[in-house]
Design a protein that fits this description.
Largest sheet: 2 strands, antiparallel
Helix content: 25-40%
Order of helices and strands: EHHHEHHHEEEEHHH
CATH superfamily of the largest domain: Cytochrome c-like domain
Bound molecules: heme C
Distance between the termini: 29 Å
Strand content: 5-15%
Number of strands: 6
Number of domains: 2
Number of helices: 9
CATH architecture of the largest domain: Orthogonal Bundle
CATH topology of the largest domain: Cytochrome Bc1 Complex, Chain D, domain 2
Structural class: mainly alpha
Strand order of the largest sheet: 1-2
CATH class of the largest domain: Mainly Alpha
Protein backbone atom coordinates (compact mmCIF):
# COMPACT_ATOMS: atom_id res chain seq x y z
CA UNK A 1 0.00 0.00 0.00
CA UNK A 2 1.24 3.57 -0.47
CA UNK A 3 1.18 4.04 3.31
CA UNK A 4 3.10 0.90 4.22
CA UNK A 5 2.71 -2.84 4.67
CA UNK A 6 -0.46 -4.27 6.17
CA UNK A 7 -0.96 -7.90 7.16
CA UNK A 8 -4.28 -9.73 7.45
CA UNK A 9 -4.77 -10.65 11.12
CA UNK A 10 -5.19 -14.18 12.52
CA UNK A 11 -8.96 -14.69 12.66
CA UNK A 12 -8.84 -17.90 14.71
CA UNK A 13 -8.19 -16.03 17.93
CA UNK A 14 -11.18 -13.72 18.24
CA UNK A 15 -12.69 -15.67 21.16
CA UNK A 16 -12.53 -12.69 23.51
CA UNK A 17 -14.25 -10.31 21.14
CA UNK A 18 -18.00 -9.90 21.56
CA UNK A 19 -20.30 -10.50 18.60
CA UNK A 20 -20.78 -6.77 18.35
CA UNK A 21 -17.04 -6.13 18.26
CA UNK A 22 -16.58 -8.66 15.47
CA UNK A 23 -19.50 -7.14 13.56
CA UNK A 24 -18.18 -3.59 13.97
CA UNK A 25 -14.78 -4.70 12.70
CA UNK A 26 -16.27 -6.38 9.62
CA UNK A 27 -18.92 -3.77 8.80
CA UNK A 28 -17.25 -0.54 9.84
CA UNK A 29 -13.55 -1.35 10.18
CA UNK A 30 -13.42 -0.52 13.87
CA UNK A 31 -11.06 -2.53 16.09
CA UNK A 32 -12.31 -3.11 19.67
CA UNK A 33 -9.61 -0.67 20.83
CA UNK A 34 -11.42 1.99 18.76
CA UNK A 35 -8.60 2.12 16.21
CA UNK A 36 -9.40 2.04 12.50
CA UNK A 37 -8.78 -1.08 10.45
CA UNK A 38 -6.88 -0.13 7.31
CA UNK A 39 -8.34 0.07 3.78
CA UNK A 40 -7.35 -3.31 2.35
CA UNK A 41 -10.21 -4.61 4.51
CA UNK A 42 -13.36 -4.06 2.39
CA UNK A 43 -15.58 -2.98 5.30
CA UNK A 44 -17.49 -0.55 3.04
CA UNK A 45 -18.88 -3.53 1.15
CA UNK A 46 -19.73 -5.49 4.27
CA UNK A 47 -21.61 -2.58 5.85
CA UNK A 48 -24.56 -3.69 3.70
CA UNK A 49 -24.30 -7.42 4.42
CA UNK A 50 -27.55 -8.92 5.68
CA UNK A 51 -27.71 -9.51 9.45
CA UNK A 52 -28.35 -13.22 8.90
CA UNK A 53 -25.18 -13.59 6.80
CA UNK A 54 -23.21 -11.57 9.34
CA UNK A 55 -24.43 -13.85 12.15
CA UNK A 56 -23.39 -16.92 10.15
CA UNK A 57 -19.90 -15.49 9.61
CA UNK A 58 -19.50 -14.69 13.29
CA UNK A 59 -20.67 -18.21 14.22
CA UNK A 60 -18.16 -19.66 11.76
CA UNK A 61 -15.29 -17.55 13.12
CA UNK A 62 -16.18 -18.68 16.64
CA UNK A 63 -16.10 -22.33 15.56
CA UNK A 64 -12.46 -22.14 14.43
CA UNK A 65 -9.77 -23.89 16.46
CA UNK A 66 -7.29 -21.24 17.57
CA UNK A 67 -4.10 -21.55 15.51
CA UNK A 68 -0.86 -20.09 16.80
CA UNK A 69 0.48 -17.75 14.17
CA UNK A 70 1.98 -14.46 15.05
CA UNK A 71 1.23 -11.89 12.36
CA UNK A 72 3.50 -8.83 12.08
CA UNK A 73 2.02 -5.46 13.01
CA UNK A 74 1.37 -3.03 10.16
CA UNK A 75 4.49 -1.15 9.09
CA UNK A 76 3.43 2.38 8.26
CA UNK A 77 5.74 4.77 6.45
CA UNK A 78 6.62 8.34 7.49
CA UNK A 79 5.50 7.81 11.10
CA UNK A 80 1.90 7.67 9.95
CA UNK A 81 -0.64 6.41 12.46
CA UNK A 82 -3.79 4.47 11.60
CA UNK A 83 -5.83 7.56 12.42
CA UNK A 84 -3.87 9.56 9.82
CA UNK A 85 -4.93 7.08 7.15
CA UNK A 86 -8.56 6.65 8.03
CA UNK A 87 -11.08 7.88 10.60
CA UNK A 88 -13.77 5.55 11.89
CA UNK A 89 -17.44 6.34 12.42
CA UNK A 90 -18.54 7.24 15.93
CA UNK A 91 -19.77 4.07 17.72
CA UNK A 92 -22.79 6.00 19.01
CA UNK A 93 -23.79 6.91 15.47
CA UNK A 94 -23.63 3.49 13.84
CA UNK A 95 -26.83 2.48 12.03
CA UNK A 96 -29.11 0.31 14.13
CA UNK A 97 -31.89 -0.62 11.69
CA UNK A 98 -31.98 -4.30 10.75
CA UNK A 99 -30.23 -5.12 7.46
CA UNK A 100 -32.38 -7.67 5.70
CA UNK A 101 -30.53 -8.37 2.45
CA UNK A 102 -32.37 -9.74 -0.58
CA UNK A 103 -36.00 -10.74 0.05
CA UNK A 104 -37.12 -14.40 -0.13
CA UNK A 105 -38.65 -13.70 -3.54
CA UNK A 106 -35.74 -11.60 -4.84
CA UNK A 107 -34.94 -12.01 -8.54
CA UNK A 108 -31.61 -13.63 -9.51
CA UNK A 109 -30.43 -10.15 -10.59
CA UNK A 110 -31.16 -8.75 -7.14
CA UNK A 111 -29.46 -11.65 -5.38
CA UNK A 112 -26.50 -11.37 -7.76
CA UNK A 113 -26.11 -7.66 -7.10
CA UNK A 114 -26.10 -8.29 -3.35
CA UNK A 115 -23.42 -10.98 -3.74
CA UNK A 116 -21.27 -8.78 -6.00
CA UNK A 117 -21.49 -5.68 -3.82
CA UNK A 118 -21.88 -6.89 -0.24
CA UNK A 119 -20.63 -10.47 0.03
CA UNK A 120 -18.08 -11.56 -2.59
CA UNK A 121 -16.40 -8.11 -2.66
CA UNK A 122 -16.10 -8.08 -6.45
CA UNK A 123 -16.38 -4.29 -6.13
CA UNK A 124 -13.07 -4.12 -4.28
CA UNK A 125 -11.32 -4.76 -7.60
CA UNK A 126 -13.97 -4.10 -10.24
CA UNK A 127 -15.94 -1.28 -8.59
CA UNK A 128 -15.63 2.48 -8.49
CA UNK A 129 -14.25 4.94 -5.97
CA UNK A 130 -15.66 8.00 -4.24
CA UNK A 131 -13.78 11.27 -4.60
CA UNK A 132 -11.96 10.65 -1.33
CA UNK A 133 -10.67 7.31 -2.60
CA UNK A 134 -13.01 5.13 -0.56
CA UNK A 135 -14.98 2.35 -2.19
CA UNK A 136 -18.25 3.47 -3.83
CA UNK A 137 -20.45 0.54 -2.90
CA UNK A 138 -23.29 1.57 -5.20
CA UNK A 139 -21.12 2.69 -8.12
CA UNK A 140 -20.71 1.17 -11.58
CA UNK A 141 -18.35 -1.78 -12.05
CA UNK A 142 -15.73 0.19 -13.96
CA UNK A 143 -12.66 -1.01 -12.07
CA UNK A 144 -11.22 2.22 -10.66
CA UNK A 145 -9.39 0.65 -7.75
CA UNK A 146 -5.70 -0.01 -7.58
CA UNK A 147 -4.77 -3.22 -5.84
CA UNK A 148 -1.39 -3.45 -4.15
CA UNK A 149 0.38 -6.79 -4.16
CA UNK A 150 3.77 -8.18 -3.24
CA UNK A 151 4.79 -7.65 -6.83
CA UNK A 152 3.60 -4.08 -7.18
CA UNK A 153 0.52 -2.04 -7.96
CA UNK A 154 -2.12 -3.59 -10.18
CA UNK A 155 -4.50 -1.21 -11.88
CA UNK A 156 -6.49 -1.50 -15.05
CA UNK A 157 -8.52 -4.44 -13.79
CA UNK A 158 -11.28 -5.29 -16.22
CA UNK A 159 -14.49 -3.29 -16.30
CA UNK A 160 -17.34 -5.75 -15.83
CA UNK A 161 -20.39 -3.74 -16.81
CA UNK A 162 -23.18 -5.14 -18.99
CA UNK A 163 -21.60 -3.56 -22.07
CA UNK A 164 -18.09 -4.79 -21.31
CA UNK A 165 -19.34 -8.36 -20.87
CA UNK A 166 -21.71 -8.38 -23.85
CA UNK A 167 -19.81 -11.23 -25.52
CA UNK A 168 -19.95 -13.42 -22.42
CA UNK A 169 -22.74 -15.98 -22.01
CA UNK A 170 -24.10 -16.90 -18.59
CA UNK A 171 -22.23 -20.17 -18.86
CA UNK A 172 -18.95 -18.39 -19.70
CA UNK A 173 -19.35 -16.23 -16.60
CA UNK A 174 -20.24 -19.13 -14.32
CA UNK A 175 -17.25 -21.13 -15.59
CA UNK A 176 -14.84 -18.22 -15.30
CA UNK A 177 -15.88 -16.73 -11.96
CA UNK A 178 -16.54 -20.14 -10.39
CA UNK A 179 -13.35 -21.58 -11.87
CA UNK A 180 -15.34 -24.51 -13.13
CA UNK A 181 -12.83 -25.49 -15.77
CA UNK A 182 -9.66 -24.84 -13.81
CA UNK A 183 -6.99 -23.05 -15.78
CA UNK A 184 -5.25 -20.00 -14.47
CA UNK A 185 -6.70 -16.61 -13.86
CA UNK A 186 -4.41 -13.91 -12.66
CA UNK A 187 -5.43 -12.43 -9.33
CA UNK A 188 -9.09 -13.39 -8.93
CA UNK A 189 -9.73 -15.13 -5.57
CA UNK A 190 -10.53 -18.41 -7.29
CA UNK A 191 -9.70 -20.46 -4.21
CA UNK A 192 -12.83 -18.94 -2.63
CA UNK A 193 -15.16 -18.55 -5.61
CA UNK A 194 -14.74 -22.15 -6.77
CA UNK A 195 -16.89 -23.18 -3.78
CA UNK A 196 -19.80 -20.90 -4.73
CA UNK A 197 -22.93 -22.77 -5.73
CA UNK A 198 -24.07 -22.78 -9.36
CA UNK A 199 -27.21 -20.92 -8.25
CA UNK A 200 -25.17 -18.08 -6.70
CA UNK A 201 -22.88 -17.89 -9.74
CA UNK A 202 -25.86 -17.85 -12.08
CA UNK A 203 -27.36 -15.02 -10.00
CA UNK A 204 -24.08 -13.08 -10.28
CA UNK A 205 -24.07 -13.65 -14.06
CA UNK A 206 -27.72 -12.54 -14.26
CA UNK A 207 -26.86 -9.29 -12.48
CA UNK A 208 -23.71 -8.68 -14.54
CA UNK A 209 -25.69 -9.07 -17.78
CA UNK A 210 -28.68 -7.02 -16.59
CA UNK A 211 -29.65 -3.39 -17.23
CA UNK A 212 -28.96 -2.73 -13.55
CA UNK A 213 -25.28 -3.20 -14.43
CA UNK A 214 -25.31 -0.94 -17.49
CA UNK A 215 -22.69 1.81 -17.69
C1 LIG B 1 -8.68 -9.24 -5.88
C2 LIG B 1 -9.27 -8.57 -7.01
C3 LIG B 1 -10.48 -9.19 -7.67
C4 LIG B 1 -11.67 -9.58 -7.09
C5 LIG B 1 -12.07 -9.54 -5.63
C6 LIG B 1 -12.51 -10.03 -8.18
N1 LIG B 1 -11.85 -9.90 -9.37
FE1 LIG B 1 -12.59 -10.35 -11.22
N2 LIG B 1 -10.78 -9.98 -12.04
C7 LIG B 1 -9.68 -9.47 -11.37
C8 LIG B 1 -8.55 -9.39 -12.31
C9 LIG B 1 -7.16 -8.87 -11.98
C10 LIG B 1 -9.03 -9.89 -13.54
C11 LIG B 1 -8.23 -10.04 -14.84
C12 LIG B 1 -7.60 -11.40 -14.78
C13 LIG B 1 -6.66 -11.66 -15.96
O1 LIG B 1 -6.46 -10.76 -16.76
O2 LIG B 1 -6.18 -12.80 -16.05
C14 LIG B 1 -10.44 -10.23 -13.34
C15 LIG B 1 -11.26 -10.70 -14.32
C16 LIG B 1 -12.66 -10.83 -14.21
C17 LIG B 1 -13.56 -11.11 -15.29
C18 LIG B 1 -13.16 -11.26 -16.76
C19 LIG B 1 -13.35 -9.92 -17.44
C20 LIG B 1 -12.57 -9.75 -18.69
O3 LIG B 1 -12.91 -8.79 -19.43
O4 LIG B 1 -11.62 -10.49 -18.96
C21 LIG B 1 -14.83 -11.17 -14.77
C22 LIG B 1 -16.12 -11.43 -15.51
C23 LIG B 1 -14.69 -10.95 -13.35
N3 LIG B 1 -13.37 -10.75 -13.05
C24 LIG B 1 -15.75 -10.93 -12.46
C25 LIG B 1 -15.60 -10.88 -11.07
C26 LIG B 1 -16.67 -11.07 -10.13
C27 LIG B 1 -18.13 -11.27 -10.49
C28 LIG B 1 -16.12 -11.02 -8.89
C29 LIG B 1 -16.80 -11.27 -7.58
C30 LIG B 1 -17.50 -12.55 -7.45
C31 LIG B 1 -14.70 -10.71 -9.06
N4 LIG B 1 -14.42 -10.66 -10.40
C32 LIG B 1 -13.81 -10.50 -8.02
C33 LIG B 1 -9.62 -9.11 -10.03
C34 LIG B 1 -10.59 -9.39 -9.10
Amino acid sequence: MPFGEVYGPNLTILQEWSDEEIENAIRYGIHPTGEPLLPPMPYEAYAGMADADMEAIIAYLRSLEPVENEVPAALLVDNLTRADIRSVPDLAELPTDPILGPAEDATPEELGEYLVRNVATCIKCHGSLNEDGTLDVEGPLVAQAIIYTDFGEVDGMPTITQQALSAWSTEDLVNYIGYREGGRVFFMPMHAYRYMTDADLEAIAAFLKSDANAE
